[in-house]
Amino acid sequence: MKSFMTHFTGNDHWVTGSNVNRRSIGTCGALIIAAFVAFMALTGCTVSNNSENENAEDMEHTPLKFGATYMTMNNPYFESLDDSIEEVVVANGDVLLTRDPAQDQNKQNEQIQEMLDEGVAAIFLNPVDWKAVKPALIKCKEAGVPVFDVDTYVYDREYVVSSILSDNYNAGVQIAHDMMKKRSSARIAIINHENINSTSLRVQGFLDTIQGNPRYRVVVHEKITAELEVAMEITKTIIDDGIRFDVVLGGNDPTALGVLAALQLRRVEDPILIYGIDGSPDGKTMIKQGFLEGTSAQFPIEIGNTAAETAYRYLRGESVESNIIIPVKLITQENLVDYDMAGWQ
After folding, report:
1. CATH topology identical between 65-166+300-326 and 168-298+334-338
2. Which of 84, 92, 82 is nearest to 312 (CA)?
3. Which of 22, 51, 127, 210 is deepest in the core (most CB within 10 A)?
4. Interatomic CA distance for residues 97 and 86, integer angstroms
5. 323 has which bridge partners?
6. Kindly report the CA angle at 193 between 229 and 133, in degrees rounded to 5?
7. 65-166+300-326: what CATH class?
8. Which of 293, 267, 220, 252 has its CA nearest to residue 81?
9. Cβ of 135: how many Cβ atoms within 10 Å?
């Protein structure tokens, strides 16, 4: 700009000549002035745009915090579920705070309070005890923080915005049909998680399907925490007590794998059909090797993505479904090739 002004001012001294020259230069000067005004206007626009950019930078997205707590992280299923939620959250420039209560409902309630104190915008919850989590749900409601229930219901569903979970009842139905196709009669052991609605629904679907058929009889039903080590110990006790069974319904894959470990430790060689529910990489590997009969596959990646997207829609003021059910599919050796052996669905 300085060189342009110097050139314009420097021509001033020779417009003192004839009128013709003065008129000519006057015309030229008018053009130059017009050009200068245009230049200044353009320069002003540039400054304005820069200012707008600076304002936009000042108004950059402030990351939201989301909370997530699951009954345990000692299960690859919940790791996959959490990863899929976090993928959506991070893609939106936000942060996910994940907590592990290690099967302790009191601890989970404390964790939820801590997340409220952190100022989370929403909480993804998988309860340790579907009834005893109520005090924490009340705190969330009082704080105005929406709760999204994942994988299993809470008992007091009026405190959650939306429940996103597998078709747990149908998982049990699928397994019962497969068992009845392969065995004309059975002595059944059921081992599932206590105080967790999802595994209770799985068992109920199984029991309703075999109801009224005396050839299929439940000889033992144990309710424990759904972890491999715990299932292994309780199965060893069942074996040591002399209870005979030839079919096992495990509430999830870790439970089924714990049963398998106990049978091997006790050197039980009888042909026993063992079913899990999850569709985990370990479960699919055991099916391939002939140790597990089947697993009703859940889709934690889809559940997590759906839960996170539902939370964002709700926070934007959009309406969301209160109950979202993700279908399950039974995996056996017959269709194992259709699934990723190393990952989750």
Report:
1. yes
2. 92
3. 127
4. 9
5. 163
6. 115
7. alpha beta
8. 252
9. 12
Q: Which residues of 40-78 are buried (b: 16+ CB within 10 A; e: fewer)?
A: eeeeeeeeeeeeeeeeeeeeeeeebebbbbbbbbbbbbb
Give pLDDT, residue 60.
82
CATH dotted code for 168-298+334-338 = 3.40.50.2300
**How long a stretch of residues is the chain?**
345
Confidence of residue 59 (pLDDT cuts 50, 70, 90): low
pLDDT tier at 61, thresholds 50, 70, 90: confident
Query: Does residue 31 register a pLDDT over 60?
Result: no
Chain segment 143-164, per-residue pLDDT in tens? 999 999 999 999 999 999 999 9
Average pLDDT rounded to a whole number, residues 325-331: 97
147-150 and 122-125: which strand pairing? parallel
The answer to whether 204 and 169 have CB atoms below 8 angstroms apart is yes
Alpha-carbon torsion (87, 88, 91, 93), positive or negative: negative
Q: Return the residue matching tokens 């049963």.
A: 259
Domain regions of the chain by residue span? 2-58, 65-166+300-326, 168-298+334-338
